[in-house]
Amino acid sequence: MSAITKDMSVPDIDVNDLTRPGHDAEEWNESGAGVDKFYTLNHPEPHRDRARWILSNHPEVKQLFGRTPITALIAVGGATIQTAVGGALADASWWIVALCAWFFGAFVNHTMWVVIHEAAHNLVLKGKAKNQLVGMIANLPLVVPASSSFRIYHLKHHQFQGDYYLDADVAADWEARLAGRTFLGKLAWEILFPIFQSVRTIRFAQAKNISFWTLPVGINFTLQMVYNVAVFALLGPSALLYLALSFLFSIGPHPLGARWIQEHYIVEQGQETYSYYGPLNVLALNVGFHNEHHDFPFIAWNRLPKLKALAPEAYDSLVSHRSWVALWWRFLTDRNITLFSRALRDGRINGKRRARVRGTYAPETLDEGITGTLS
């Protein structure tokens, strides 16, 4: 471990307590947890305390805060490329369309998902409306209108990590049982993942009476339907099929789909968030740096590697992934990794976290308008 200059007002702390708070809690050893039922933890999510520690020991991290406007050009470029490729495949056989979607389109659409994610945190342009527009542009080749609704539930995922009712990233209990432990069950779940994710948001919305029918959602839906109809009418059904398959492969039955497994599926007891440091981060705009992102959701994608390099003592000891391909295969074949391999906690436990230090974060990248959980 490299030596660091520490703020002497911050007490010495064991590296495992720093990087994996609660790593030795007895709840991790509960029989069946992570396979047939969720882990149920009694300590808050680890990111805020780790972020405070890094800020105390590396105050220069604040220089990494801020937006990356060039991300807007990536959104326009990705939407243009996918539309053009769809048009080029207008007369192609379905199997050629499928191969192109698997080997090319999935990667472009996955990048568009990352742009939507950046826009959700207002990390592209100044102002929520401009970021909403960037998200909608990136959404166009995805066929399914999702950017504005994603923004709603994703920001709550950061605030309420592990809260069954307010973290829509967590599978429903019935969903996890339906997917089960088998290769075919988990593969079927990946194929149907867009449907399952949509259903989860109903549980999320009911928890605090959160409406998804906002003006941005309505605009997102309208723009997407206009685009879809235009693609079908002007470029033909093969073009729309290419975009739809690219969408499916970017989040489901494809190595890229392992990104959703990588982030919070527990592969080692004691750690609930994982980063990926493999080569696909180049195409995926560093979305694999997930621990770093959760610690500092106000650092844009192009500066996340700098965060890791700045505070290696906080990240190098964490378990991480080097291959989405290997993780995808492991998820499908390992009967001990299921949709239950997630950490849950009563949302009120996260409410006990120490507040972020004023002046050390960008509040517009978060959403702290809802507190607590179901009583």
Alpha-beta content class: mainly alpha
Ends apart, CA distance between termini? 44 Å
Instruction: List how many beta strands DSSP finds.
Output: 4
What is the helix/strand order? Answer: HEHHHHHHHHHHHEHHHEHEH
Going across the major beta sheet, what is the strand order? 1-4
Structure annotation, total helices: 17
Round the mean pLDDT to the nearest integer and report it.
86
Q: What composes the largest sheet? A: 2 strands, parallel
Number of self-contained structural domains: 1
Whole-angstrom Rg: 20 Å
| Portion in beta strands | under 5%
The helix fraction, in percent, is 40-55%
Structural commentary:
By secondary structure, the chain is mainly α. It has one domain (17-365). Helix content is 51%, strand content 2%. The protein contains 17 helices and four strands. The chain has helices at 15-19, 47-57, 70-88, 94-120, 128-139, 147-159, 173-179, 183-191, 193-207, 215-235, 237-251, 258-264, 290-295, 304-310, 312-315, 324-333, 347-350, and strands spanning 39-40, 275-276, 320-321, 343-344. The chain has a two-stranded parallel ribbon with strand order 1-4. The termini are far apart.
Sum up the structure in keywords.
17 helices; mainly alpha; 375 residues; two-stranded parallel ribbon; disordered C terminus; disordered N terminus; 2% strand
Topology:
Elements: H1 15-19, E1 39-40, H2 47-57, H3 70-88, H4 94-120, H5 128-139, H6 147-159, H7 173-179, H8 183-191, H9 193-207, H10 215-235, H11 237-251, H12 258-264, E2 275-276, H13 290-295, H14 304-310, H15 312-315, E3 320-321, H16 324-333, E4 343-344, H17 347-350
Parallel strand pairs: 1-4, 2-3
Helix pairs in contact: 3-4, 3-5, 3-11, 4-5, 4-6, 4-11, 10-11, 12-16
